[in-house]
Amino acid sequence: MATAVAAWRAWAHGFTLTQLGLAVPRRLALLIMTVLGAALIVTLQWLNLRRMGRSGVPVRRPLKALAERILPQSTRELIPFLALSVTAGLCEEFLYRGFAMAVLSRAGLPVGVVILLSSVIFGLAHLYQGRAGFVSTMVLGIFFGASRSALGSLVPAMVWHMGLDLVAGIAGPRYLVHRQVVTEQLG
Questions:
Q1: From CA 156, how far away is CA 123, in angstroms rounded?
Q2: End-to-end CA distance of the chain
Q3: For 162, left (φ over 0), alpha (ψ -120 to 50), or beta?
Q4: Residue 149: in which H helix or E strand, if any?
Q5: Exposure winner among 53, 94, 160, 173, fewest CB in 10 A?
Q6: Residue 49 to residue 176: CA distance in whole angstroms
Q7: How far apart, in whole angstroms, are the C-alpha atoms of residue 173 and residue 75?
Q8: How far apart are CA 87 and CA 13, in angstroms?
């Protein structure tokens, strides 16, 4: 709903597809960057989840508790989670790196400030993940914002975001949730 309202407001205020990051310039280069970036980001996400799952550090306990509450616990829950991952990648990137960056740019702010402000807002939207979730999401937002600015398109960030969320839904329960719970429910 928020994405639809933002798209309507963007249209009403005359934002172009290019201003919103929805253009696809240099298609071959963009495709290569999207695929290579996705492969790297998905691999790093998988390895990081595995590392965190194997960690016995007490700081990881809140992360594991959060994972038990929000990640899919069965095959039945996985299918809607995967759909949610795709829509989150599309909608959140449009809202924070498309619409927000276009509005802030139109206000005359420098690109670095635009990227930082949109990333802080993105981080705030993820405060339910705690302080560490806010910071890591904000840093990720800075990376996605910089890629949108450098590449002139949201497409790579959308695909990368989807990949992060898809891996979280597939590998997260495997590494972060108690194995017996997942095994019983998936088996």
A1: 19
A2: 36
A3: alpha
A4: helix 130-151
A5: 53
A6: 7
A7: 11
A8: 24
Cα(147)–Cα(145) distance, integer angstroms: 5
Q: How far apart are CA 187 and CA 185, in angstroms?
A: 6
Q: Please state whether the predicted TM-score (pTM) of the whole model is above 0.90.
A: no
Residues 96, 106: Cα–Cα separation, whole Å: 14
Task: Compute the chain's Rg from CA coordinates.
Answer: 18
Average pLDDT over residues 151-158: 96
Residues 6+ apart with CB under 8 A from 97: 21, 118, 141, 144, 145, 148, 154, 157
Query: What is the C-alpha separation between 65 and 141, in angstroms, rounded?
Result: 24
Tokens 């890591």 correspond to what residue?
Answer: 136
Whether residue 153 contacts residue 65, with contact meaning beta carbons closer than 8 Å, is answered with no
Listed in sequence order, the DSSP H helices in 55-129 are: 60-70, 75-92, 100-106, 111-124
